[in-house]
Design brief:
CATH superfamily: Endonuclease/exonuclease/phosphatase
Strand order of the largest sheet: 3-4-2-1-12-11
Shape: globular
Radius of gyration: 17 Å
Protein name: Putative exodeoxyribonuclease
GO molecular function, one term: metal ion binding
CATH class: Alpha Beta
Family: Belongs to the DNA repair enzymes AP/ExoA family.
Structural class: alpha+beta
Oligomer: single chain
Strand content: 15-25%
Cofactor: Mg(2+); Mn(2+)
Mean pLDDT: 93
Largest sheet: 6 strands, mixed
Low-confidence stretches: 1-13
CATH architecture: 4-Layer Sandwich
GO biological process, one term: DNA repair
Distance between the termini: 15 Å
């Protein structure tokens, strides 16, 4: 029995106890679904995930639904927050069960409407997909990233109940989360302020479930640059997290990065990070 069968058969009271959630930065939904024979649509047809958080759709809602049309016809439901700027950001949640409610944004006058946050409410569980800015040290881009993190942090601290937020955080938390950490100590993604922000979120009650299940080991990395031989040498970053709070955090039983077996089989520069919550 696949996990999606469990998803469909459990009662609403058991839903938060039995689901598999995946997160993936698709690096452009039209490009990811357009890779015939080895792309996102084939992955969707094979995955046992019940809920999939996606980031960087880089497409309008209409374009995203067109790109995902075969998957939607097969029964997937889509909640999507389209980009505020053409070709940038865009986040979504694919689910086998239709959400009870969907909310784009988290009440920020600056950041609602830019396609960086969407959440879907199911029976007993709320799941969010987030795409944090890439940033650039000592520039206005980094200032914007810090403003987003501050606003998001306030929202996360206000949450109660079973809640899982997944996405591309563009922050490597510790030296274990980035292969070349010494060469990136002054670069966005590994700056002290960014890492301290994650410390604060974890101290507020969130659990980095992948790190909990894979303690004291490098990675497992989820992003590799297309440049050079980063993928072949596994010179990556772990920046795609599942952060969970409530009882669901303790139900994370297995976590895997679905790294392609070879470079030619990649359909994004990220790999899906999939967690079974049991």
């Amino acid at each position: 029995m696949g996990s999606h069968d469990l998803f469909q058969q459990t009662s609403s009271d058991d839903y938060a106890s039995y689901c598999t959630i995946s997160t993936i930065n698709v690096n452009g939904i039209r490009a990811a679904t357009g890779k015939t024979g080895k792309g996102m649509l084939e992955w969707l047809a094979a995955t046992e995930a019940d809920i999939i958080c996606v980031q960087e759709t880089r497409a309008t809602d209409e374009q995203t639904r067109k790109a995902l049309a075969p998957a939607l016809a097969a029964g997937w439901h889509l909640a999507h927050a389209e980009p505020g700027t053409k070709g940038r950001a865009g986040v979504g949640i694919l689910s086998r069960q239709e959400p009870r409610a969907v909310r784009a944004g988290f009440g920020s006058a600056e950041f609602d409407g830019v396609g960086r946050y969407v959440e879907a409410e199911f029976d007993g569980l709320t799941v969010a997909s987030v795409y944090v800015h890439t940033g650039e040290a000592d520039t206005p881009m980094q200032d914007e990233k810090y403003r987003f993190l501050a606003a998001l942090g306030a929202h996360l601290r206000s949450r109660t109940g079973d809640f899982v937020i997944c996405g591309d955080w563009n922050v490597a938390h510790t030296e274990l989360d980035i292969k070349n950490w010494k060469g990136n100590v002054k670069n966005s993604g590994f700056l002290p302020g960014e890492r301290a922000w994650l410390d604060e979120i974890l101290a507020a009650g969130y659990v980095d479930v992948v790190r909990t299940l894979h303690p004291d080991v490098p990675g497992p990395y989820s992003w590799w640059s297309y440049r050079g031989r980063a993928f072949d040498n596994d010179a990556g970053w772990r920046i795609d997290y599942h952060l969970a709070r409530g009882a669901v955090a303790g139900r994370a039983k297995n976590a895997v990065v679905e790294r392609a077996s070879e470079y030619a089989l990649r359909w994004s520069d990220h790999a899906p990070v999939t967690v079974q919550y049991r």
